[in-house]
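Posting this for the archive.
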Amino acid sequence: MLEVNQECYEMIHYLNHENIGELKLGYLKGIEHCIMIDHIQNFYKDHSHINVKLYRDSRQQIEDMLRNYQVDCILTSRVGDDLINFEDDWQYQRIYSYPFVVAMNKNHQLAKENYLHYFDVKNQTQVILDTNELHFISQDLDMILMHLAISQDTAILAQFTQDYYAYQKYLRYISLQDFPQRFHIYIIWHKNTMNDILHAFLQSIQKSL
């Protein structure tokens, strides 16, 4: 009886202290500072023993990782009607949609404006939308914000970047008028996945929306 109780104790100890599964999540550079942490925290509240592996990279790289089954799901983005070229076996859900704002150094000549129009800033060197085709040009967000903090350039960024706490002291964000494009964030996974941990993560995200 003592040996059986010891085995039960060891099993309980294992379940309470060891990882019992794994989730591999790829995500777009930059969003971890603004919108992703809450989702991970919410998931851990009910699944504290799941090992979550995070892979931070460009949109193209994380979508290639999903395509090659290197991750279970990804958080990626599109702008406006820039539709995702989904593989036949991909499932997706749009979880956020943000307007664009103009970001700049607080000492910029436009920083006192209450709002701006796209044509006010379209010729600035760090505007990250092609001024002719409005195709999203994905760049490293950290590098963009650092550049803005030390320069007199501007950038059109998704509104959630206002919460990027490391640069709040240096940057001003101004509403962009007459600009219908929006920045969408999607979660994408393989349709026929049998990964119960992934299903639990998807449910956790759905609850928090």
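Residues 1-15, 129-135 have pLDDT under 50 and may be disordered. The longest strand covers residues 90-98.
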